[in-house]
Amino acid sequence: DDEKVDLKEHAEHFYGSNQDNKDGDCPESDGENGISEESDTTLEREKEVPVKLTRLDGVQVGHIQEINLTPGRSHSLHTVNMKPLIFEIPDFFSNEECQHIIRLGQEQGLEVSSTHQITADNTLRLLDTNGDQRLSLQEMRRTIEDGYDIYLNDDDIREMYFRLKLDPNQDDFISRSESSGLKVRQLAAYIKDLVSKNPIKKSRYSEQTWIYPDRTKDDLVAEFQRRLLKLTRLPEQLINKYSFFQVVKYGPHGHYNAHLDSAGDTKGLPCCHLVTTKKCRICRYMTIMVYLNDVEEGGETAFVVANNDTFSDQTLRNSGNINLNNHCRESKLHVRPQKGKAVIWYNHFIDEETGWFGDVDNFTWHGGCPVIKGEKWIMNRWICASNDREVDLA
Ligand SMILES: O=C(O)CCC(=O)C(=O)O
Ligand SMILES: [Fe+2]
């Protein structure tokens, strides 16, 4: 799953700042003093008003709106949270529909989810964050998380030091001289071996498959597309293109550590859905996730920093709360899995000037808490957009 690698690589550097490249094709705005009195000119201008992205109005937490998504059935849209904006639709899928999607996934065959290839190349960056010329346990933990997307606790790290003879004086610090004996190749091999025996240490412990609506002549998949269009009221090009979705199964201990489903944009990288190169960023405007079964225990979707006053990438990473396998309860908001329930959120804001793809919403950091009992099936549908409205609407 290459794109997850990209998400991780790029996401880190990008949030927080707002340096969208807004020159070029930005439509002329009629600001306060640009309004013409002449009616024909006004008409002319109205024709040119560019299509905008839509964003449902949450109003306030607990707000319920009746919505019409499919003939003969009524649905309701519940506002779960405002920061970030999250909605739920109970019974978005009926029991039969959930079964049907699970079957589609099973028929296609699930594969182990992966986010990162552990390679023995020498790119590991030792994160001496406080610059004291030695690595604390926390700094080593962060080094391994960043380098390999593997989540260790202090005892795992001590065990690793012992096996690799990295910390002979056992003071829990890797000094400069100790780190000179650190062979990245050896470390990578150790981590690889540890994870093969202990997949629970991976950031994502699940199985998955992709379903492509255009290749799947399936009535429900087509119906799903229609429901999305009615729900989101987005231009249909956005719904019809890149319409593939993921079916995911978590077994006992299955989890997905916290992440953003999309990346920010300060380096001006192209969106991954528009290019075939690896140097790209994931551009997903919305996430629609549906629980396909009831989980006996655990498996909540956790929004790690929801409703915090401020967001800091470093604070989040140092807190250890990305590791939902160990820190699920520390998250600020939990959504309970419930068969057929859809959870919907916006990974990006709408850019005020362009009316199109804006900044990433850092408050959407989220993941799946460990399944304690039973299994958990979900489907993930992402609605992609980019900074180029013309390309998106083509
Ligand atoms: O399993 C969950 O609740 C969250 C899954 C998720 O965030 C993802 O697959 O991107
Ligand atoms: Fe996600």
**Alpha carbon gyration radius:** 23 Å
Bound molecules: 2-oxoglutaric acid, fe (ii) ion
Give the strand tally: 18
Distance between the termini: 27 Å
CATH architecture of the largest domain: Sandwich
Query: Whole-number average pLDDT?
Result: 87
**Which structural class matches the secondary elements?**
alpha+beta
The CATH class name of the largest domain reads Mainly Beta
Count of helix runs: 12
Instruction: Encode the helix/strand succession as letters.
Output: HHEEEHEHHHHEEHHEEEEEHHEEEEEEEH
Strands side by side in the biggest sheet: 1-2-3-13-9-18-7-6-4
Residue windows where pLDDT falls under 50 for at least 5 positions: 1-39
Corresponding CATH superfamily of the largest domain: q2cbj1_9rhob like domain
Label the overall shape: globular
Main sheet, how many strands, which sense, barrel?
9 strands, antiparallel
How does this model look, in words?
With 394 residues, the chain is α+β, with helices and mostly antiparallel strands. The protein folds into 2 domains: 2-25 and 36-114 and 203-393, q2cbj1_9rhob like domain (Jelly Rolls, Sandwich); 137-199, no CATH class. Helices cover 29% and strands 22% of the residues. The protein has 12 helices and 18 strands. The strands form 4 sheets. A 9-stranded antiparallel β-sheet has the order 1-2-3-13-9-18-7-6-4. The protein has a 5-stranded antiparallel β-sheet with strand order 5-8-16-11-12, with no helix packed on it. The longest helix is centred in the N-terminal third of the chain and has 14 residues, at 95-108. The two termini are 27 Å apart. Mean pLDDT is 87; it is low at 1-39. Fe (ii) ion (FE2) binds next to loops.
